[in-house]
Structure to design on (169 residues):
């Protein structure tokens, strides 16, 4: 089963160092029965894109948490796509997060299929979206517009062999 795991560049570097994404449990996004039912007209590729987009939103929140903790971070959303055993994945039933899943085990880097990351050109918009998140959560329409603007940037696809180069850039 393909699962999309929200991440950040520092967390990805830590995963490379340890050899796995973790610790468990992990939150990811995948094509779940609830997502398939909600998006009945979509094919598998469209459903996977929805799951990827949900993971990118979660990555934005991870960047905001890092910033709130005073951690220095690169304002680029990161999503790790991995192949995992279905039995280690528990899908939620909450309709608000139709694609959300919980993984019971850490994910070895050998199970990573690809990494999706914002291009450098998106950094300014991602940083603005992170700054606008608190106001957007309070219902500010202008802040929501800024946060939604982050999604205008498509994540770039990278093969696993390119991860070390990504971390150096």
């Amino acid at each position: 089963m393909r699962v999309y795991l929200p991440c950040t560049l520092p967390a990805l570097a830590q995963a490379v160092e340890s050899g796995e994404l973790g610790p468990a449990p992990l939150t990811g996004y995948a094509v779940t029965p609830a997502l398939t039912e909600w998006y009945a007209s979509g094919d598998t590729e469209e459903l996977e894109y929805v799951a990827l987009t949900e993971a990118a939103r979660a990555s934005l929140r991870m960047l905001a948490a890092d910033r709130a903790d005073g951690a220095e971070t690169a304002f680029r959303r990161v999503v790790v796509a991995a192949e995992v055993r279905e039995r280690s994945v528990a899908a939620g039933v909450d309709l608000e997060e139709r694609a959300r899943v919980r993984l019971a085990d850490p994910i070895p880097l050998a199970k990573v299929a690809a990494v999706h990351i914002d291009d450098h050109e998106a950094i300014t918009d991602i940083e603005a979206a992170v700054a606008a998140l608190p106001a957007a959560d309070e219902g500010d329409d202008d802040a929501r517009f800024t946060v939604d603007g982050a999604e205008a940037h498509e994540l770039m696809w990278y093969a696993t062999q390119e991860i070390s180069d990504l971390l150096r850039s």
About this structure: The mean pLDDT is 89. The beta strands are 2-7, 20-21, 26-30, 78-83, 89-91, 100-103, 107-108, 112-117, 156-158. Residues 20 and 110 are 8 Å apart (CA to CA).
